[in-house]
Specification:
This protein is α/β, with parallel strands linked by helices. It is built from nine helices and eight strands. α1 packs parallel to α8. The structure holds pyridoxal-5'-phosphate.
Length: 223
């Protein structure tokens, strides 16, 4: 587990950027990890966990403490929303359409729940990315504000693929500017590869998987 190392890097990036580490929340993306691999993070006080597949989350959640705050970060099919609502998943980072917003709200109301949602914005403009188009976000936000079962707290974005963390900066900057313009507080940007750039640009939520377990991986043989 490399949590201490990741936390140190977050604190150093906050210091460089003149930001309070208390306003940058680490979400451990635990996809592909077993409950036994996840528990040391919880024991170290990391209660925000992210998953990207509904079935995997359903298999895992019962083995972990009820105090965990779940974040759903993956592409979400509408017919699976009911499980997230019934299981009390607090955060959905991947709200990308009006249809999904309506389903989230309907299922939340049915299960006496309320989602905190982030609109995923396609600032990467790559065919594989799942977010809403930038120009559609204001209207989507207006629709969401009429729905009782969810509250839009901010925006989420993924940077275009790049080997260089600096490659993420324009996409993160565009996301934060849009969040500012829409008066949205939360900015879920930054993954293992680019979280320091995300902190510099104004991230309030970091979704980090690989870097938290890196030291546990066997070092590949040379050649
Ligand atoms: C897997 C995943 C992450 C974490 O990625 P790492 O590179 O492992 O840190 C973050 N966000 C989403 C949406 C993911 O699917």
């Amino acid at each position: 587990m490399s949590l201490a190392h990741v936390r140190a890097r977050i604190e150093a990036a906050c210091a460089r950027a003149g930001r309070d580490p208390g306003e940058v929340r680490l979400v451990a993306v635990s996809k592909g990890r077993t409950p036994d691999e996840i528990r040391p993070l919880i024991d170290a006080g990391l209660l925000d966990l992210g998953e990207n597949r509904v079935q995997e989350w359903r298999d895992k959640a019962p083995a972990l403490p009820a105090a965990v705050r779940w974040h759903f970060v993956g592409n979400l099919q509408r017919n699976k929303v009911k499980y997230l609502a019934a299981g009390g998943v607090g955060w959905v980072h991947s709200l990308n359409s009006e249809r999904l917003a309506r389903t989230l709200s309907d299922q939340a109301v049915r299960h006496d729940h309320r989602f905190t949602a982030l609109i995923e914005v396609d600032v990467a403009r790559e065919p594989t990315k799942q977010g809403a188009r930038v120009e559609d976000v204001p209207a989507l936000l207006e629709t969401c504000r009429t729905l009782p079962g969810l509250e839009v707290a901010g925006l989420m974005a993924m940077a275009p693929f790049s080997d260089d963390p600096e490659g993420a900066r324009p996409a993160f900057r565009e996301t934060v500017a849009l969040a500012d313009a829409l008066d949205l507080k939360e900015r879920s940007i930054g993954m293992s590869r680019d979280f320091e750039v995300a902190i510099e640009e104004g991230a309030t939520l970091l979704r980090i998987g690989t870097a938290l377990w890196e030291a546990d991986r066997p070092v590949p043989a040379a050649g």
